[in-house]
Structure to design on (213 residues):
């Protein structure tokens, strides 16, 4: 029944709004469908669909990012489906870290853009740093997406992590990745990414000092 409600809601939305809706994670799809069809009154259903269409239109113009835990089954599915096909600005060995984290039953986060999963994030204390492993799932050409993902993770850390703030650390191996994280306010503290290096052979560490003030 839920699948039918999701299909019915998508059919009732304009094409662009329907695509945004169908790209969302299942929990969001089910939530919106339940909201619309919890009443048998068709006029109320139509009003709710019309309002959702407006809301989704605003999301297309001003995307919303949200960080939340990912259930283990989804992480396992990512490992099975994607292999190592991540955006080039992902951190070093993202897939291997994801696999190890799944096996160790530790927390994995996901970044949602307008309700659609665009990245996974693993945060681990490593010595004096909070190491961020980032796997960007989208292969799209939206140049602003990786920066928005990193920004969303930083906002999550500042807002929701109660323990002492440690410097945020990333490991990258490409010159382009190093430059990207430097643009996001990270500072190179370990040599290794020489100018022009686009291989995966040598990693370098960059850190960013976060403050709630």
């Amino acid at each position: 029944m839920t699948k039918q409600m999701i299909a019915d809601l998508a059919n009732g939305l304009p094409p662009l709004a329907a695509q945004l809706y169908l790209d969302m994670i299942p929990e969001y799809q089910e939530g919106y469908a339940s909201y619309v069809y919890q009443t048998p009154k068709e006029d109320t259903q139509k009003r709710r669909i019309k309002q959702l269409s407006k809301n989704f239109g605003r999301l297309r113009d001003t995307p919303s990012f949200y960080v939340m835990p990912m259930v283990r089954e989804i992480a396992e599915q990512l490992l099975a489906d994607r292999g190592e096909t991540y955006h080039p600005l992902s951190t070093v060995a993202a897939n291997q870290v994801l696999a190890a984290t799944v096996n160790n039953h530790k927390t994995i986060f996901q970044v949602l853009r307008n309700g659609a999963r665009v990245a996974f994030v693993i945060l681990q204390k490593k010595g004096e740093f909070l190491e961020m492993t980032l796997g960007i799932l989208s292969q799209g050409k939206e140049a602003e997406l990786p920066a928005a993902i990193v920004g969303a993770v930083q906002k999550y850390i500042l807002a929701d992590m109660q323990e002492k703030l440690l410097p945020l650390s990333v490991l990258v191996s490409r010159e382009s990745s190093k430059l990207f994280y430097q643009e996001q306010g990270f500072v190179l503290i370990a040599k290794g990414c020489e100018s022009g290096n686009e291989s995966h052979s040598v990693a370098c560490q960059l850190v960013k000092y976060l403050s709630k003030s």
